[in-house]
Amino acid sequence: MEGKPVLHYFKARGRMESIRWFLAAAGVEFEEKFIETAEDLNKLKNDGSLMFKQVPMVEIDGMKLVQTRAILNYLSTKYNLYGKDTKERVLIDMYTEGVADVNEMMIRLPVCPRDQKEATIAKIKEKTTVHFLPAFEKVLSHGQDYLLGSKLCRADIHLVEILHYVEELDPSLLANYPLLRALKARVSNLPGLKKFLQPGGQRQPPTDEKMLEEARKVFKF
Amino acid sequence: MMASKPKLHYPNGRGRMESVRWVLAAAGVEFDEDFLETKEQLQKLQDGNHLLFQQVPMVEIDGMKLVQTRSILHYIADKHHLFGKDLKERTLIDMYVEGTLDLLELIIMHPFLKPDDQQKEVVIMAQKAIIRYFPVFEKVLRGHGQRFLVGNQLSLADIILLQTILALEEKIPNILSAFPHLQGTKNATGCLPHIAEEDSFVNRSENVQGSCILICNLYLNTLLFE
Lengths: 221, 226
Known about the structure:
With about 220 residues, chain A is an alpha+beta fold. In chain A, about 55% of the residues lie in helices and about 5% in strands.
């Protein structure tokens, strides 16, 4: 039976947000079961739903998928956003992993100790400006609409998500990257993403102190 | 035109390249290594635009310069039929590999911790392995009674698991004592011809990590950490 995917996670960005972005961009409606108490999480852990007793977990096609990358790899294949052959797929993989490196830093930033926050932000800015943004701007110098050319793929979605976070951190970081800004505008305007990003859409806001407090109660960190 | 061997660019140490060496070895693919021993060598790779994100690992293979460990592993696994027979098997393998890589990450980072933290971290690794990861794989193997994790044939999941088990055993020799099926799969995978030959890298001692750390301290900590 083809039901909607069901996402199990805390009501926050964390490691589920890139999955939400992807489904929205792919035009796939999804449901969310938010973990709000320690009991919610324990229930999932104890009923065998979580392979490594961790979330994110996505119920789809009769499976309970875990591990963000495994989930995204499955979804990308299912919704035809993973390139047409091995050569395209390996390119997409490299771009996706490059984005994931920056995303990892963004995910950890809210839980970074207060006295290390400034140094961490400086590190993120350094990594994006030295390694990351120039590489992708260069890829787009082929003059076509998307990373691989004329067709959207998962890497465009992941990249644009991160460009939003980079801009949230410091809008001036994107100043020298016109092609990336154009990609960001183009992809953000896809019907599914447009709706996702509007008020009332399923996108989660930046993680603030209050959300962290709630999360500490559930995840005990 | 004869296909040339893949060429690996990385310092002479395990780090993030070790999984790639394992998978190539398991697939029976001979490879060359260009060990990065000086700052200038890395600079040369960066200046020559050989590194997409200015980082290693990098593997020259089939006319491409692949970076990012998982991309490299997936490419090799696909090419050498180590990724299952269909999407369902592939996804299972993916989940198992990703879980194992989470555990392996602790091992990769271990040499770079302060000496005081290293012993504590060994305890954490052992706990995670025994409580979170090993029971999952033990149950899978017990469930179907086969030697390999998925589809009754060797896959990326078995190779990465073997690499991780052996690395953990170096620090915690009896770590598999409660997991008979894992011991079985360790022996099955470890006896595969290409791995059992154990030419250069499998027996590389941890002491090589010393030279690795020196190089890292000389310049970027992004050298080993993507």
